[in-house]
Amino acid sequence: MKRANRIPNFRGWHAWVLHRPSAAIDPLPRQLERLGMTVDRYWPDLPDQNDASANLSVKPVDILFFDADMGMDEQFPWPSDAAPMPTVALIGSEAPGRLEWVLSRQSGAHLQKPVSSAGVFSSAVLAVHAFEQQQKLRAEISELRRRLKLRPVVARVLMTVMRSHNIDEHGALRAIRAEAMKKQQTIEDYCAAIVASGRGGPGDATTIVTN
User: Which residues form the ANTAR domain (predicted)?
Assistant: First the structure.
């Protein structure tokens, strides 16, 4: 039986730890290194890898562990809902305001402070899974929005086919869908290609075959 979710192998990964110097998290870098990761610690700010003036020696990061107790939005060079890697919150305080902030950062997992070796691997696995699911959902939403924007184009081609072949809306849609399937395209992309080629005007739908 094939597993639905693959447990990542962290060997060769690079981790960032955004936390002030504290004995409460000292076991974390050691445990990450045991998992095969390299670790860089930062405080109070993270480097911006998209900044051309930033230090080019900064190694690309695969996962981030950050301080949930004293962290601030200004420490992150990306919006709160757009972390470019899996994130794990390091939580010591259960104050509602702090937990609300962690939720706003959309962290995929958390570790309770003081950190021990137990739970580090699990938190990393859960964070990676949550990040992959978020990325998948964002891609699906983006694709739906793109196709929605093409609906007027579909309507234009639909009307053209109806007039050209003297058929109703359902017949025209079936014909368009059949042609799109032949070209292994979505209906939206197929209609956009017709309009882009200049064949989407009234009376010009001869390439679409109807039954």
Answer: 134-195
Output the domain CATH number for residue 96.
Answer: 3.40.50.2300
φ, ψ of residue 118 to 5 degrees: the values are -70, 135
> Total domain count for the chain?
2
Residue 87, in any domain of the structure: yes
User: What's the mean pLDDT in 166-181?
Assistant: 92
How many other β-carbons are positioned within 10 Å of the β-carbon of residue 19? 24
Adjacent-strand bridge partners of 66: 18, 89
Q: Contact at 8 Å (CB) between 172 and 158?
A: yes
CATH (domain of 183)? 1.10.10
55 bridge partner residues: none
Closest by alpha carbon to 67, among 118, 25, 35?
A: 25
Per the CB < 8 A criterion, the answer to whether 205 and 199 are in contact is yes
| CB-based contact 115:25 (threshold 8 Å) | yes
User: Omega into 202 within 30° of 0, i.e. cis?
Assistant: no
